[in-house]
Design a protein that fits this description.
Blueprint lengths: L16 H4 L3 E2 L1 E6 L5 E6 L2 E6 L2 E8 L3 H9 L1 E5 L6 H6 L10 H4 L4 E2 L8 E2 L4 E14 L5 E16 L4 E2 L2 E2 L1 H4 L3 E4 L2 E4 L2 E4 L8
Antiparallel strand pairs: 1-13, 2-3, 2-6, 4-5, 5-10, 6-9, 7-8, 9-10, 11-12, 13-14, 14-15
Length: 202
């Protein structure tokens, strides 16, 4: 089979590209709005983009709360999404209106960061405090803006749960990460799980 993205073969009921580019780490991003409201949301377009200095990126399809807050304030936190926090991570993906804190609405415990203002997920196995270095609005091959935005940040502070350290190493098998696979599928240690995005309920 061959097709072009603007003319997908009708046998493909859903776009397979996100399933093909998988597994992907989940960027569980916490930010603070200009009004001081803490926001928390998972992003599957996320990764490290540099080692020295350490740099991270997350991409948002549109200036959603996390991207807007990070752009406005210049700060965000990456929180490690582990299997024991799968429900909290998935709940925070709900389409909550601006001005609602997912931390508060879903009773996700937060903790203070050391260097930047946005809080972090208290139970995360690791959290990386970041200061924004670039905000990139993407364009297509014809030069038209796509509506997507990439936020790049430099890691300025690192939190690690001592329970996942072994012999001076961050032990991934103990940290038990969740990966994004495509469609509504997530990879957990015990296999593949489908998790639907919840509807926000006021």
């Amino acid at each position: 089979m061959f097709y072009t993205p603007d003319n997908r073969d009708p046998v493909l009921k859903y776009d397979p590209i996100k399933a093909i580019v998988a597994p992907r780490p989940i960027g569980w991003i916490s930010t603070l709005s200009s009004e001081g409201v803490a926001n928390l949301a998972p992003y599957s377009f996320f990764n490290a983009v540099g080692g020295m200095p350490p740099m991270l990126m997350f991409a948002s399809e549109g200036f959603k709360d996390s991207a807007r807050n990070a752009s406005d304030t210049g700060e965000f936190v990456f929180n490690y999404a582990s299997s024991d926090l799968a429900d909290e991570m998935n709940n925070s993906s709900a389409n909550a209106p601006a001005g609602v804190s997912e931390f508060d609405h879903y009773n996700i415990e937060k903790a203070e960061s050391k260097i930047i203002a946005p809080p972090r997920v208290a139970k995360a196995k690791a959290s990386l405090e970041c200061k924004v270095t670039s905000v990139v609005e993407t364009n297509d091959v014809e030069g038209n803006l796509t509506g997507a935005v990439i936020i790049i940040g430099q890691v300025v502070g690192v939190h690690i749960d001592d329970d996942v350290l072994r012999d001076g190493r961050f032990e991934v098998s103990l940290a038990d990460p969740i990966s994004r696979l495509g469609y509504m599928d997530f990879g957990l240690t015990d296999g593949l799980h489908e998790r639907l995005r919840p509807d926000f309920k006021a």
